[in-house]
């Protein structure tokens, strides 16, 4: 542009304009990276989330939805004698699951602390769920969330659930479901909905409340609140020496992998860790020989790491040799790689030699087992978000001695 200097001469200068600010659509702001800060979670390059600390591991992956709608929460008291764990499966958006992860444990613990007569824990949990539902409905958002939680204090475990998230206990290698899925197909749930003037309709391959929602209980879902309640089922159990692990997971896992299969894979992974085959063994596993599912006779059964099928092997044979001899022939190259791939990946680290690749463990301990279960559900066709949390109950039994 041209202009006059103080001496009256004409000068020319070029002035660069600031580019316009890029407006990011609100829909792209639905999931923020900040949501993963402060909880010990690690956001992977592929969008997966993993978390590990003493006594618990989590692995979460996004399905075919546009946005990740699962969330989870781990809370431990400063003295280590109380822990709260939750897995939350959102639908219709991620807002409900995120809200529940931020508030449910606080509401439950507040009810327990402010109760003069220290209410029954079942009632405190119920009040905490209903309060969280009430708070979320005031946000004016339309999404909802199924929940499964576990409160461990002293020698008690209080397990609660809404919807189709599930808790399964590992007791001496046997799967023991602690929750019942809340679905419109249940006689009690369907009758409750119809008694309140609602209806259940078959749509898109499953029975749904008013033809839209495939669960009969949840937090949120304001448009169906008259029929889809937020009152959880709660069970209190006492920790005993035969209790080993507690698995909390969203329905993305349970729709494809059975309760006992989950426990079989968990026990097998920890047995490998005991033998030193894994760089990060599962913490405090009970000897697998004590499981009633493991034969102490002339042969034993192991699980194939890819097909997860059980087969007999002779005694004094390593698991690796047993897998190689399953078909009485040497393994193919792809098969050998698949056995190693579960524990190791090649990762590039910038250092003095930019072309050097360093091999390091990918996942360890309970997180590795969580990931193995997630991967199995995916290979079997799960399109849903999947979150798996495994709690080592031995850790809490030791801390309460």
Brief summary of the model shown:
26% of the residues lie in helices and 28% in strands. Helix 5 crosses helix 8.
Explain what you see:
By secondary structure, this protein is of the alpha+beta class. Among the domains are: 42-182 and 217-284 and 365-371 and 381-399, 4-Layer Sandwich (Phosphatase 2c, domain 1); 185-216, no CATH class. Helices cover 26% and strands 28% of the residues. The chain has nine helices and 21 strands. It has helices at 95-114, 121-137, 187-195, 251-254, 259-274, 319-324, 333-341, 365-379, 393-399, and strands at residues 2-4, 10-12, 42-43, 49-53, 56-61, 70-76, 82-91, 144-153, 156-162, 166-171, 174-177, 200-203, 206-209, 219-220, 233-238, 243-249, 300-303, 310-313, 344-348, 357-361, 386-392. The strands form six sheets. The protein has a seven-stranded antiparallel sheet. Strands 6, 7, 8, 9, 14 and 15 form a six-stranded antiparallel sheet that branches. A two-stranded antiparallel ribbon has the order 1-2. Helix 1 (95-114) crosses helix 2 (121-137). The protein is globular. The termini are far apart. The model is unreliable at 24-40 and 284-362 (pLDDT under 50).
Strand-helix topology:
Layout: E1 2-4, E2 10-12, E3 42-43, E4 49-53, E5 56-61, E6 70-76, E7 82-91, H1 95-114, H2 121-137, E8 144-153, E9 156-162, E10 166-171, E11 174-177, H3 187-195, E12 200-203, E13 206-209, E14 219-220, E15 233-238, E16 243-249, H4 251-254, H5 259-274, E17 300-303, E18 310-313, H6 319-324, H7 333-341, E19 344-348, E20 357-361, H8 365-379, E21 386-392, H9 393-399
């Amino acid at each position: 542009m041209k202009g006059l200097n103080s001496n009256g001469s004409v000068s020319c200068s070029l002035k660069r304009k600031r580019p316009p600010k890029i407006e990011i659509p609100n829909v792209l702001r639905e999931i923020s990276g900040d949501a993963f800060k402060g909880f010990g979670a690690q956001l992977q390059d592929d969008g997966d989330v993993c978390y590990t600390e003493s006594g618990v591991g989590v692995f979460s992956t996004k399905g075919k939805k546009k946005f990740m709608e699962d969330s989870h929460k781990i809370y431990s008291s400063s003295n280590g004698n109380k822990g709260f764990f939750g897995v939350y499966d959102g639908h219709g958006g991620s807002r409900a699951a995120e809200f529940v992860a931020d508030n449910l444990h606080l509401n439950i613990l507040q009810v327990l602390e402010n109760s003069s007569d220290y209410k029954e824990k079942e009632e405190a949990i119920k009040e905490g769920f209903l309060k969280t539902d009430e708070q979320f409905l005031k946000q004016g958002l339309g999404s909802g969330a199924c929940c499964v939680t576990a409160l461990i204090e002293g020698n008690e475990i209080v397990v609660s659930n809404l919807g189709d998230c599930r808790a399964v206990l590992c007791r001496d290698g046997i799967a023991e479901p602690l929750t019942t899925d809340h679905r419109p197909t249940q006689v009690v749930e369907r009758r409750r909905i119809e008694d309140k003037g609602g209806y259940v309709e078959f749509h898109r391959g499953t029975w749904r409340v008013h033809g839209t929602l495939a669960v009969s209980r949840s937090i949120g879902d304001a448009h169906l609140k008259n029929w889809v309640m937020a009152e959880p089922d709660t069970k209190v159990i006492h920790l005993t020496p035969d209790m080993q692990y507690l698995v909390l997971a969203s329905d993305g896992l349970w729709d494809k992998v059975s309760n006992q299969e989950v426990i079989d894979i968990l026990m097998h992974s920890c047995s490998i860790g005991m033998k030193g085959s894994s760089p990060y063994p599962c913490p405090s596993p009970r000897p697998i020989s004590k499981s009633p599912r493991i034969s102490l006779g002339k042969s034993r059964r192991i699980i194939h790491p890819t097909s997860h099928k059980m087969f007999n092997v002779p005694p004094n044979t390593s698991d690796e040799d047993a897998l190689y001899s399953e078909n009485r022939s040497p393994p193919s190259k792809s098969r050998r790689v698949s056995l190693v791939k579960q524990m190791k990946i090649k990762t590039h680290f910038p250092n003095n030699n930019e072309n050097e690749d360093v091999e390091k463990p990918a996942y360890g301990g309970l997180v590795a087992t969580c990931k193995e279960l997630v991967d199995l559900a995916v290979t079997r066709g799960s399109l849903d978000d999947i979150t798996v949390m495994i709690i080592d109950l031995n850790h809490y039994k030791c801390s309460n001695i």
